[in-house]
Amino acid sequence: MSYQGVIGLKPNSSSDNFHVSNTEEKELVLKNQDFRINKVILNQKRQIEILKKKLRSITQLKVYNIEKKTELEKLFLSCVEEVKKEVSKKRALSSVKAKRDFQGNFRIFTKFLC
Q1: Could you point out which of 3, 18, 22, 32 has its C-alpha 20 to 30 Å from the C-alpha of 47?
Q2: Strand (E) or helix (H) holding 18
């Protein structure tokens, strides 16, 4: 069985142990580090994509809530305007009624004096 080319391991002729040269060992370490770095980079890219999706959904939710809030604010403001109109009508009617009552009372008072 030939072990040459398999991750840089070569059988040692003196024993059954495998010998790795210093440069081959460095190459293996660098390849291993590159593999781990690439794996970390891929995981980070996946995390970035997940966070981008979450950010998009949060932004959409924020826009929806703002639109919903403006609809409620418009409804509230229209209700406030209606109440203001009703209050001003009631005030106008009550002032007209008060005038009539005052004039009627004044007439009665003047009749009483005369």
Answers
A1: 32
A2: strand 18-19
